[in-house]
Design a protein that fits this description.
Keywords (chain B): Cell membrane, Membrane, Transmembrane, Transmembrane helix, Transport
Shape of chain A: globular
GO molecular function (chain B): dipeptide transmembrane transporter activity
CATH superfamily of one domain in chain B: MetI-like
Protein name (chain B): Dipeptide transport system permease protein DppB
Subcellular location (chain B): Cell membrane
Shape of chain B: globular
Radius of gyration of chain A: 21 Å
Largest sheet of chain A: 6 strands, mixed
Number of strands of chain A: 13
Strand content of chain B: under 5%
Largest interface: A-B, 31 and 22 residues
CATH architecture of one domain in chain B: Orthogonal Bundle
Radius of gyration of chain B: 24 Å
Oligomer: heterodimer
CATH superfamily of the largest domain in chain A: P-loop containing nucleotide triphosphate hydrolases
Membrane topology (chain B): Multi-pass membrane protein
Chain lengths: ~325, ~325
């Protein structure tokens, strides 16, 4: 049994203009100690899917799934109280904006110790000692002094280190990092990413890394899920994905990497992600897909098998060539 | 911190000068002077009128009167009441505890009900509770204090007979010398059985009436501030730690949401003291508000000027304290960030 197992996860928001499906049929398995990346552009539902796992979505969201288990427990069947015993302890999350994710009214030390106070049976002195140890672990100099600092006295990189320390406080089994480096300076991005990877390797914690940076994915993850417009369009081993993407969107995404650009023009994917109003009848990517057929435009695509990276496509690619398959529609 | 304090104190000086000028002029713009008001329809001979005016210094040029008044204020002299012939400061100090007691109870009523109501309305946004609280707050804010006071007296005192109609104490049943001037404390000190209960009973209606507008303002402010804060990333972080909703809302969110609310509470002290003028009149509450109203009808210039200056001074002082309190609860200001 994987540590985190998700089957057919969907999240629908009730909006004033009707229901909006932000996440549509996402599958994911994360084994203990594994590093899985979820990539996709903004609004592709990758953060929402993980917030659903944490149970942190607002009440306007409806979460459904065939299976949503963490560490053998059904997260959807759990009571709110039961879930609170797991999140923050076994399942922790790091957010995109470190500066605004720390409470400006409380010291860093208070916020780190608070998680331990809620979940662990430690004395006040032990919590303080562990907080110092954690700050050392995430590479913050003068940890004793920093514990009494307020968030506004820290830089973005320092704040994210504190957030990581907070996530590690109760020795979690899985950390979900939601674009942990996006809001940071490029030079700091590499440091924070290195830190996360080192901690992940040393402690053997599972890590789900949400990102839109393919470069980060290539360097870090063992497996990659690609999201598009709330759907999971492909899932593969990282090396396989970069070598032979099976979904046309993944292929287009990789072709759009600046490193792979040829000539003077940067390649891009024409069009925009469909919104609530202009959702295609068939495949959501069909309006932007080079290989789209009438079938693609009118019939929702089936999910392909493992040999095609579970691609959600009528004509998954093999070495860049679309493969026609029999469609039972 | 000290620099901040001194700067804030220095900033209040122009306010005082402007106030001094405005009160002096405004009081004199009211038709009739103290002597005319006192003689009324009986009339008075022009010689006697001139003599009285001379005695009170009212025959001197207006700018000279102002300079005398300003000079007195600078020396801490608020003048002597024309009617009672006692120093204005003494009268004020005797009456002020009654007003302070009432304003304090009204503010406690407003805070104790307003903040939880605002928090709950924000947490249960869009619910029936939210709509009820916000409609009630709007009504409370819009209601004329006079009408609301009379309505409560009619219902609570006349119809239900639960509370006394007016005054601070049952003077027939209890009598004791004022020690602190605060009826709640004096009644306890007096050892007379039931006196404290009577003091509380007298305070209930005036406190509700005076506290209604601040209550409405605080509830609305808390709600909007809380709604903003509840959407912040750090509230999500607190939830992600697996903390109880009570801790997330009551500690992480409320602590941040209170920052603007404290400012509003400070600003309400002005409203409270202004409202006290009406409330004290309705309930025959022997405080500075009622005294000011009486001073207006007597055209008691020194009492009016002095009373307004003293009340304004208190409002300015409270706002200064609130500014400092604000620094204490908001670490971002404390460290000059």
């Amino acid at each position: 049994m994987p540590l985190l197992s998700i089957r057919n996860l969907s999240v629908t928001f009730a909006t004033s203009r009707g229901p909006f499906r932000a996440v549509d049929g996402v599958d994911l398995d994360v084994e203990a100690g594994e590093l899985v990346a979820i990539v996709g552009e903004s609004g592709s539902g990758k953060s929402v899917a993980m917030l659903a796992v944490m149970g942190l979505l607002p009440w306007t969201a409806t979460v459904t799934a065939d299976r949503l288990t963490f560490d053998g427990r059904d997260m959807l069947a759990l009571s709110a109280r039961g879930r609170r015993k797991i999140i923050g302890r076994d399942l922790a999350m790091i957010f995109q904006e470190p500066m605004s994710s720390l409470n400006p009214c409380f010291t860093v030390g208070f916020q780190i110790r608070e998680a331990m106070k809620a979940h662990l049976d430690l004395s006040r002195a032990e919590r303080q000692a562990r907080a110092v140890e954690l700050l050392e672990l995430v590479g913050i100099p003068e940890p004793e002094r920093r514990l009494s600092a307020f968030p506004h006295q820290l830089s973005g990189g320092m704040s994210q280190r504190v957030m990581i320390a907070m996530a590690l406080a109760c020795k979690p089994k899985l950390i979900i990092a939601d674009e942990p480096t996006t809001a940071l300076d490029v030079t700091i991005q590499a440091q924070i990413l290195d830190l996360l990877l080192r901690l992940q390797k040393d402690s053997g914690v599972g890590l789900v890394l949400i990102t839109h940076d393919m470069g980060v994915v290539a360097e870090t993850a063992q497996r990659v899920c690609v999201h598009y417009a709330g759907q999971q369009v492909e899932m593969q081993e990282t090396r396989g994905l970069f070598r032979d993407p099976h979904h046309p969107y993944t292929a287009a995404l990789l072709a759009a990497l600046p490193e792979r650009a040829q000539g003077r023009m940067l390649p891009s994917i024409p069009g925009v992600v469909p919104g609530l109003a202009d959702r295609p009848k068939g495949c959501l990517f069909s309006p932007r897909c080079r290989f789209a057929t009438d079938t693609c435009r009118n019939v929702p695509p089936p999910r392909a098998g493992a040999e095609f990276g579970f691609a959600l496509c009528h004509t998954p690619l093999l070495a860049g060539v679309p493969q026609r398959r029999e469609i039972a529609a | 911190m000290l620099k901040l304090f001194l700067r804030r104190v220095a900033l209040t000086l122009p306010t005082f000068v402007a106030l001094m000028f405005v009160t002096f002029v405004a009081v004199r713009l009211v038709p009739g002077d103290p002597i005319e008001v006192r003689t009324g329809e009986r009339g008075i001979s022009p010689e006697r009128l001139a003599q009285f005016r001379h005695e009170l210094g009212l025959d001197r040029p207006i700018w000279q009167q102002f300079l005398d008044y300003a000079n007195g204020l600078l020396h801490g002299d608020f003048g002597v009441s024309i009617v009672t012939k006692t120093p204005v400061l003494n009268e004020f100090l005797i009456l002020f505890p009654a007003t302070l007691e009432l304003a304090f109870c009204a503010l406690v009523f407003a805070i104790v009900l307003g903040i939880p109501a605002g928090v709950l309305a924000a947490v249960k946004r869009g619910s029936i509770f939210d709509h009820t609280v916000m409609t009630a707050a709007l009504a409370g804010y819009s209601m004329p204090i006079f009408w609301w006071g009379l309505l409560l007296i009619m219902f609570m005192s006349e119809y239900l007979g639960l509370t006394p109609v007016s005054g601070r104490m049952d003077l027939i049943n209890y009598y004791f010398e004022p020690v602190t001037g605060f009826m709640l404390i004096d009644s306890l000190l007096s050892d007379q059985e039931g006196a404290f209960g009577a003091a509380v009973a007298h305070l209930i209606l005036p406190s509700i009436v005076l506290g209604t507008i601040p209550l409405a303002v605080i509830a609305r402010m808390t709600r909007s501030s809380m709604l903003e804060v509840l959407g912040e990333d750090y509230v999500r972080t607190a939830r992600a730690k697996g903390l109880s909703p009570l801790r997330v809302v009551g500690l992480h969110a409320l602590r941040n949401a209170l920052i603007p609310v404290v400012t509003v509470i400070g600003l309400q002290t002005g409203t409270l003291l202004a409202g006290a003028v009406l409330t004290e009149t309705i309930f025959a509450w022997p405080g500075v508000g009622k005294w000011l109203i009486e001073s207006i009808s007597r055209r008691d210039y020194p009492a009016l000027q002095g009373g307004i200056m003293l009340i304004s001074g208190i409002v300015i002082l409270v706002n200064l304290i609130v500014d400092l309190l604000y620094v204490a609860i908001n670490p971002r200001i404390r460290h000059g960030g």
